[in-house]
Amino acid sequence: MSTLTNLETFLEKYPAESGTRINYGTSGFRHKADKLSHIAFRVGIFAVLRARYKKAIIGAIITASHNPEEDNGIKFIDPMGEMLEDSWESLVTDLANVPDDQVDKTVQALIARFGIDMATDGIVYVGRDTRKSSPTLCEALLAGIKVANGTSIDFGLLTTPQLHYIVRSKNTNGQYGEPTEDGYYQKLSNAFLRLNQLIGNNPNYKPHLVVDGANGIGALQLTKFSKFIGDKLTFEIVHEPQGILNYQCGADFVKVNQREPKSIVLKVDQRYASFDGDADRIIYYYKNSKDDKFHMLDGDKIAVLVAKYLKETLAAAAFDDIAVSIVQTAYANGSSTIYMREVLNMETFCVPTGVKHLHHKAGQCQVGVYFEANGHGTILFSEDVERRIKQSTNPKAIQLSHFIDLVNQTVGDAISDMLVVETILNSLNITIEDWDSLYNDLPNRLLKQEVVDRNVITTTDAERRCVLPSGLQAAIDETVGHFGSKARSFVRPSGTEDVVRIFAEAQSQTDADLLAKKVANLVF
Ligand code: NG1
Ligand code: ZN
């Protein structure tokens, strides 16, 4: 007998789309929203199985992050606030794609294979972004949870990192924080205000920021958060959810187009930041007083700022033995890596694209700072380091202890990362121009090319070298060789789109553009 209740009724309500196979990739399921209802329903069933198997609460967030408004997606959050365990990705892909008449059989096979006790609690925490399609998909997800006789708690509108925080807090019995949206604001604002009290207001730091909320959830949640910190840091929030999500604004628009959002007229002496559609990425920018031009500070610049602050503060707190390491991907600007190694004397690691790879590597460090160039990242403190810092009475260690509480260690978080950057700028008593001048970015170009089968390209060495098709890497090396010692270029299949990405970096923008074009010609 099936352990699912009213399955047939809901399979009729959420019938499978034939012909479209949708995979659970690095960012969960992502597709045009109108193709996702049956996936959301099946994900609901799967989430209950995962929760029962882990004997813990699981999260499911409905969002397609920086994708256009008409897309949507669903992503799981494992018990400690981390991404879904790798080996379960293919399992949920299977369940999401089997024909309707095989759903029951597939679920029963999972129950048998993992010895899942269907009599235990299966609790799923649910949240969603501001997309118009999100409430409908949420309804399908909740139906799936009910069919599997699980329990759902629907938190409504949340940023992705907020749900990560809530899941971890609940599963650790509140040790990480109070497991509510308000608990999140409380934890971050307490840490921020304590740090602010210890640091004071340094003369070169102006506590005001213009924030582009990408017409999404980030704008709503930042408005709520700002009430918790009063005038200690004030915001002008632009791009609230009335506009089209991510359209001509948001972190991805700024990073890809290397320009400010269309509606913003930049003023000298003002800092700006853009969030993405689910507020897990952040990019800073400003108008430079010397050249009067737009300058961007991406994930690499944030990583360098954080690493510099942590290294100096750990030394001042007599923790010279604690190493800060940096984890990047092949897209990291070459100048940032050189600065980290040669000026900060830190170990740097390069891992394949995708947050889970960065998070995993950073988790093996004493203090691991990881950021993708696109502005997604956070800082992980090992248990031992966190305990030592929290036990110390050294004034700098006390500052670090509040700093740890300011960081969302579960995942990249635009609100938390913004507070981290603002606190560090104040603490170091520097302007955004000073921060920007730590190193000069090497000019680069990122191209993408639609292809029939992107998987004809395979890579190695953290995606920096091609294995197949044979001969391609030798041809890339030969081409790069004509562009000077700082030039590099690589190609890799995207994990989220049907495209191959081509990246080039060189001494000048003209060279970077030309190199990218030449390498693209080698591929196609
Ligand atoms: P793919 O499509 O695999 O390049 C993109 C981003 C990643 C990451 C994922 C998940 C670039 C070049 N790639 O991956 O950094 O954010 O999406 O959203 O930005
Ligand atoms: Zn995002």
Low-confidence stretches: none
Q: Regarding CATH, which class of the largest domain?
A: Alpha Beta
* The CATH superfamily title of the largest domain: Alpha-D-Glucose-1,6-Bisphosphate, subunit A, domain 3
Cα shape: globular
What do you see in this structure?
This protein has helices spanning about 5-15, 35-55, 85-95, 105-115, 135-145, 160-170, 180-200, 215-230, 250-255, 300-315, 335-345, 355-360, 385-390, 395-405, 415-430, 430-435, 470-480, 510-524; strands at about 30, 60, 70-75, 125-130, 150-155, 210, 235-240, 270-275, 280-285, 295, 325-330, 345-350, 365-370, 375-380, 445-450, 460, 465-470, 490-495, 500-505. It is an alpha/beta fold and about 525 residues long. It folds into four domains: about 5-155, 3-Layer(aba) Sandwich (Alpha-D-Glucose-1,6-Bisphosphate, Chain A, domain 3), CATH 3.40.120.10; about 185-295, Alpha-D-Glucose-1,6-Bisphosphate, subunit A, domain 3 (Alpha-D-Glucose-1,6-Bisphosphate, Chain A, domain 3), CATH 3.40.120; about 300-415 and about 425-435, 3-Layer(aba) Sandwich (Alpha-D-Glucose-1,6-Bisphosphate, Chain A, domain 3), CATH 3.40.120; about 445-524, TATA-Binding Protein (2-Layer Sandwich). The strands form five sheets. It has a five-stranded mixed sheet with strand order 1-3-2-4-5, with helices on both faces. A five-stranded mixed sheet has the order 7-6-8-9-10. A hairpin with a 4-residue loop joins strand 16 (about 460) and strand 17 (about 465-470). Helix 7 (about 180-200) packs across helix 8. The longest helix is centred in the middle third of the chain and has 19 residues, at about 180-200. It is globular, with a radius of gyration of 23 Å. The site of 2-acetamido-2-deoxy-1-O-phosphono-alpha-D-galactopyranose (NG1) has 13 residues, from loops.
